[in-house]
Amino acid sequence: MAKIKHNNFIDTVDDVLSGAKNEGVLHLYAEDKFLSGRTIQIKGKKMFHFGTTGYLGLEQDNRLKQAAIKAIEDFGTQFPLSKSYISHPLYAELEAKIEEMYEIPPIITKNSTLGHLAVIPTLIRDEDAVIMDHQVHWSVQNACQLLKLRGIPVEMIRHNQLNMLEEKIKYLSSKCNKIWYMADGVYSMYGDYAPIDELIQLTQKYNQLHLYFDDVHGMSWKGKNGTGFVFDTIKELPENIVVVGTLSKTFGASGATVFCSNEKLRNKIKNFGGPLTFSAQLEPASVGAAIASANIHLSSEINLLQNDLADKIAYFNQLLSNGSLPIISKNDSPVLFLGMATPITAYNFVHRLFNEGFFLNLGIYPAVPIKNTGIRITLSAHNQKDDIKALAQAMEYHFPKALEDTNNSPGKIHQAFGLHNKNIVESKSQNNSELFVEVKNSIKTIDPVEWNNLIGKQNILDYEGLLYLENTFSKHPDPTNQFDFYYYTIRDKDKTIILMTFFTFGIWKDDMLSTESVSSQLEEIRKSNPMYLTSKILSMGCLFTEGQHYYENKEHPLAQKALQLLLDLVEEKYNTLNADRLVLRDFKEDNNWNKTIQNQGYFKINMPESCVLENETWYSNEEFSERLSSRSRKHFNKEILAYENLYHVAIKQHLSPKELERAYELYRNVQANNLAINTFPYTIEVFENMNSSNNWEFIIVTLKENKNNSFNGIMFCYKNAKNVYVPELIGMDYKWAKEYHLYRQLLFQTIKRANQLGIQKIDFGLSATFEKKKLGATIVPKVAYIQARDNYVLELLNNLQNNHKLR
């Protein structure tokens, strides 16, 4: 299999969050001498605090503070001993109070993350399976990684899509005992809810189904005794539901709670629940504060606190209902999410509100899809109605200004979040007095000289190459080999071209650039479901090409406006086509489009590196050898030159029907073996069109000892009008490949043929960079930018990759 450099998910996350940090909206420090909960000081400015998750304000309650102080004075700052041996003196009282609240004994853990790590591996048996909502909290997903070590299936569904959940249940029902669905009660970004009633109905339909809820954002502000959103819905805990709550956030202290009605299971978790057994217990201050909070929860005061917060939430919702702000999930939770779509709009809006004296949280990838960037607003008991009214007014005032500053609009936001508002009429991108747009569907309508001079200097991107691509892939009967073409040219009023590019629309495998291990898993599924995990993609260039797919007049004063206009145009096309993802690809790392593209709602990934060889004229193998490094020269002499005389080499402009059949057979060998870049196989028609074109030729190598008269390897090569040689595809008989260094021989014969033709540049394409570098190629790092409607596919692929690593 070809070796390539794959993108690292962590690198992508780091890139996005580093950008937000550089904008001054993440990794901030509070500067207050003391905190009241109502305000917070950042960079010398005091702001009203609308970013807390302490919804009832209990973290500032004097009773909790005094209880924490007394616990420290009586028992010290910590009780450094595993709870399996002995709990410090306050633990029994806390457990009794929590049991009184819930009418069921709790398991108390250090925090919810450690709680999940303690519970999930103990709860889930080897014969069970797990299905996660893809927006379930990271701490749940992280704990589930441990299950994969034991071979337990861990599946994922799109957010709250119960039809998809039911399909997964049916698939797993014959393979597993219990099937656990894991979700949040209240989701931390949008403030929306798990559909608990519908899920319970599913458990009645499928007895194997069990439910596991993380309800840390539903705690205290909801339910009898503040027991949370999930308990408020289910009323009584059945054996097939487990709930994790918190003593932090709204509860005002520290720690987490776990509830299950099966006493045997509860004891098993307490006896050997990972962090419960081997980690330190809660500090006395945390337990003391939690007891004080539990006393409030067990009194009638909790109803007053809940009603007061509910009144403020209703007041805020009423204020917002009078305006046109795109609040994504309208409900009675204290979490609201204001859609911004693009990071740059969110940065602008956050800074505007900071300047007005309001602190709000940024919601950005990976917590939400990059195109669903927005502002998370949380209400708490600390907020006064005057503060809330002032915030609503400031949001209404600054929202349109932030949109105007960042070339955004309400229509774009509604489109990004899938909202429907008949009052929003989005105007299409129009030519203006400065820029003029030409959108074409065929290269035949474009001036060949202009195209070749600006774009056709590499790969199969010249005019004739695009003709071949259109003739081959446009209206192809096989949907996996079909591309629609869109050409964009942007000129100034003097008809000078500022920007030119082309896009294609087609079906890709979602794992195209995943690791071989991930693609191998998916290809097994595709044997019975060929279109599994595939998507409709609008992409710069097409899968048959690589290299810089655009021309930009960087010195033109309107270059930046032209880029912004192009991004608007392709996003309109993306939405019109209802594509799943929009991809801008093959950019150099230091390209000058980077910040603009990312600010418009794309995240950046590393692509496989490409290889280019500047093939200066040489007159003998020895002369070529001398141009290599000493190490590469040894490789060349030993593994390539020493084998050259074992091959017959032929250059053919056209293949006979029998030769074409053999060429296609060898191509399919390589394609099936190359899961590092996992694409759909090209059909025989692709190669028939090559065979009838004068721009293509075929380098055929046949081992002299091969007696069956069929060649062993072939390179499918394109001759660019601008003097570029493109070995586009390769075919090999693997029976001979390793012993006779067949792949390396084909690489060298390609270099040799380009030299014979007097072509000094070879676009060697992606993969096998180590082998190509040894023959003198230069490695060119590339990046791509992706806009996706949600994170589901990306998280699923990352989940599959982690699954393989843990085996």
Automatic annotation (TrEMBL):
All copies of domain Aminotransferase class I/classII large, residue ranges: 46-394
SUPFAM superfamilies per the UniProt record, alphabetical: Acyl-CoA N-acyltransferases (Nat), PLP-dependent transferases
Q: Which prosthetic group or cofactor does it need?
A: pyridoxal 5'-phosphate
User: In this record, what's one Pfam family?
Assistant: Acetyltransf_6
Q: Which UniProt keywords apply?
A: Aminotransferase, Transferase
* Domain BioF2-like acetyltransferase: start-end pairs: 631-772
| Gene3D superfamilies (UniProt xref) | 3.40.630.30, Aspartate Aminotransferase, domain 1, Type I PLP-dependent aspartate aminotransferase-like (Major domain)
Q: What InterPro entries does the record point to?
A: Acyl_CoA_acyltransferase, Aminotransferase_I/II_large, AON_synthase_class-II, BioF2-like_GNAT_dom, PyrdxlP-dep_Trfase, PyrdxlP-dep_Trfase_major, PyrdxlP-dep_Trfase_small
**MF annotations from Gene Ontology:** transaminase activity
Q: Which PANTHER family match?
A: CLASS II AMINOTRANSFERASE/8-AMINO-7-OXONONANOATE SYNTHASE (PTHR13693), LD36009P (PTHR13693:SF3)
Official protein name in the record = Aminotransferase class I/II
Organism, as annotated: Flavobacterium pokkalii
